[in-house]
Each structure stands twice: as structure tokens, then as C-alpha cells.
Amino acid sequence: MYPMSEAVRSHYETYPYPSYPLAASVRRCDTYALNLEALWARFNGRLPPSEARRILIAGCGSFSPYPFAVANPHTPVTALDLSRCSLRRARLHCLLHGHLNVTFTAADLCDGQAVAGRFGLIDAYGVLHHLGDPLEGLKALAVRLAEGGIIRVMLYSRFTRGEEESIRRAFRFLKIRDPGAVRRLMARARPDSRLRRFQMHSADAASASGLADALLHPCVHTFRIDQCLDLVDNAGLQPLLFAHSMALENVDEEVERIRLLESQGRSPGNFVLYLGRKAGGGRRETDGGDLLLLNPCLRGSVGMLSFGSLRIVPRLGHPTPPIAGSQRRFLRRFLQPVAWKSLSPEDRMAASGYLQALFLLKFSP
């Protein structure tokens, strides 16, 4: 293991992240954007073949395996992380909520022997920027990608992460390595200081593991958009879609928008991208023979009576927008495949919005 990998492993052994309660749950309908079938259809125009029905979470932390297992209950999920402490907590979260389709592996994602085979979906959300060499990490993931496969990454933006990095560098210079010491400094910080602004506006300030991840991490890289694109290109990949807040659907247009923001010292937030191989990937042009199907994660939520079981524990996840009765009736039509060419122009327009939101899948039979 490389020295920086050992420092990162030690960090997460001490402060597994995130620190959600084990009782915290997600509804399946709130995990629709993690469903392999929906993502594969979005970028390939087909449902995934059997050999691609595997998911790898590279740098899974203490929580991610659970929502991925909820979204893909019949798909094998491999959860990979340096930290055994994080893996133990992630495994316990899955077990407590009855999800048994996850295999947990303690290893460095750059290790070519860590996991065998190829995967249709690889998730590395908030991971590559904590590696000693992010390019080596992305190349290691690209090798494990099945033909037509998708990688989701989140990378720190130079401008979004600016204040946290100023604080982190100051703490490293002052040899502050304990969240308790950070809290004591926060209590004495001026109202207009970076540290107080971080405390007021960041959810990570609420927990020791959050403070450690945001301000005490031993390895952090930040990127401007062109550095991000160079990283992707040098790994033999291409961006298929930006998915951060307010991102434009057209990749080239979003890149130009971000460049303009950066010229003004601003950013749309940290970069969230879906990546595919250079030789393929990208959205396939659809034709009249395509079928539409409801995202499997939403099946229960569009039923006539869909109450589910009562739980008195906190729920986490990305909530689905409210679905009115008429919208619910429309979506219910797609519980079984419906031919695109059978839809009226008005229904096609409505369906297109749901396709963009991943509520519906469009694919060739």
C-alpha cells in the first residue's frame, strides 16, 4: 500500500464517514437515480446484458452500499474500501435493513487484484480527489468497466472547495488533527471568519467524522473544469452527462458554462459526472421501435394505494418530486413496456420529461 493510501486508510479507520445512524433508512422510490437498469438504458438505449449486471462501489465509505442495495435488490454489489471500520459499519447497515446482495472487500481500488471481473456500473463518488494519484485511480476503474458501462464520479471543484481548503491547509500547518480542537476554535471564531462560515453552512460541521472529512483529511485534490476533463480523457473515458445541480444536459454546453463561471471565480458546485469509454458511450438516438418502462425503483410509489410500512426512523436520500394523481395515472401506464410509437405527441412530450428525470426507461427490445 502506498504511503498516502495508508494515511487515508488510517484517517477513515479513526473517522468512518458518513456517520448516519444505523436506523436511518431510505425508501426505494428515493433511490431511482442509482438503479443500474435506468442508467444503462439512459446511456445505451438498451437494458443491461447479464454480464454487465454487477455494481462496484469504489471507496464505499460507511453508508453507500445500503442505498445501492435498496435500488438494485437483485443485482450483485461489490463494496470496496481501504477502511475495515467503514466496511463493518456499512455491512451492519445493510444487514439491519435486510439487504444481503452486497459483498464487502477491504482493499485499495488501485490494486488490480482487489476485485475480479467487470462491472456495468462503478460508483466513485467523492473518492478520486482523496487519492495520491487520481489518474491512477480512474484508470484502475476504467479497466474494470464492462462494455457500455458507466462510471459516476464526484470531484471537488477548485472554487467550491476554496474556503474549506484554506482552513484545511491552516490546520495542517498548525498540526491540528482532532475534531475536538476544531470545535474549540469554532467556538472562539469571529462571526465573519471562514471557520464560522463553514460551521454555519456545512452539514459536515455537525459531526466529528464530518469535520474530519472536510477539514482534517490527509489528502485532497481540487479541480478546475479543464483539469477534470484532462483527467477523464487521460483515463481513456469521456463525459456522458454532468449531474450536479442545475447542469445543462448537453455536455459541451455545460463545460462552456462552467468555464464562464470559473472566469468569474465561481463554480456550479462540486463536479458530478457520468463517464463512459471513448470508443462508445453517449446517448443513442432512439427510434420508433423503442419501448418505455417505469423505473423499477418507482413501481410501488405509483400504485393506487402505496403506503408501505410505518417507520419512526429518519429517512435519507434524494426525494422524488411530488406526483399528482394525473401524473401517477400516466406513469402507471408504464408498469409494463409501452411502445414509443404508440404514444400521442402530447404523451411523448410528457414522457420525455420523465425520461430526463430517470423516472422512465427507453430501450430497444
Please give the structural blueprint.
Elements: H1 3-14, H2 36-44, E1 55-58, H3 65-71, E2 77-81, H4 84-96, E3 102-106, E4 119-125, H5 134-143, E5 145-155, H6 162-173, H7 179-188, H8 194-201, H9 208-215, H10 225-234, E6 237-242, H11 251-263, E7 271-277, E8 291-294, H12 325-332, E9 338-339, H13 345-356, E10 360-363
Parallel strand pairs: 1-2, 1-4, 2-3, 4-5
Antiparallel strand pairs: 5-7, 6-7, 8-9, 8-10
Helix percentage: 25-40%
Provide the residue-averaged pLDDT: 92
What is the 3D shape?
globular
Query: Using only CA atoms, what is the Rg?
Result: 21 Å
* Uncertain stretches of 5 or more adjacent residues: 304-312
DSSP helix count?
13
Number of strands: 10
CATH topological fold name of the largest domain? Rossmann fold
Overall number of structural domains? 3
Largest sheet: 7 strands, mixed
Strand order of the largest sheet: 3-2-1-4-5-7-6
How would you name the CATH homologous superfamily of the largest domain?
Vaccinia Virus protein VP39
What percentage of amino acids are in beta strands?
15-25%
Q: Structural class, judged by helices and strands?
A: alpha/beta
Q: Give the topology string: H per helix, E per strand.
A: HHEHEHEEHEHHHHHEHEEHEHE
Task: Give the second-level CATH assignment, the architecture of the largest domain.
Answer: 3-Layer(aba) Sandwich
